[in-house]
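An instance follows:
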Amino acid sequence: MNEIPFRKVAVGMLIAWWLVPGLVWAARPIIHSSQNSFQEWIGGLFLWSPVFLIPLLAFATAFFLGEYFLYKKLTGVSPKGFRAFVCASIVGFCGCAAGIALFAHSL
């Protein structure tokens, strides 16, 4: 069984979780300053990105947790970097929730 590089996955998950509120915050200036419908479409896509990305990120987190438990069951040891993955997932989710809440509060 191949060992998953959980440290690299942790960095990717942290970036992905924090990308969601970044897209939401970037949507407002794009929509308000747009002169054509394509820019408005891009801004709307950024604004609605959490609807698609948050379930995808939750699924990815659940998948890697399942891989961890399968690896631990088969080998009896924890894979390297799993604590980093857990910490990055928690910090990433909290940052995502705070960013979206601050955006909603600023409306």
Q: What stands out?
A: Residues 6-32 form the longest helix (27 residues). The helical segments are 6-32, 37-47, 49-75, 82-106. The CA atoms of residues 1 and 71 lie 8 Å apart.
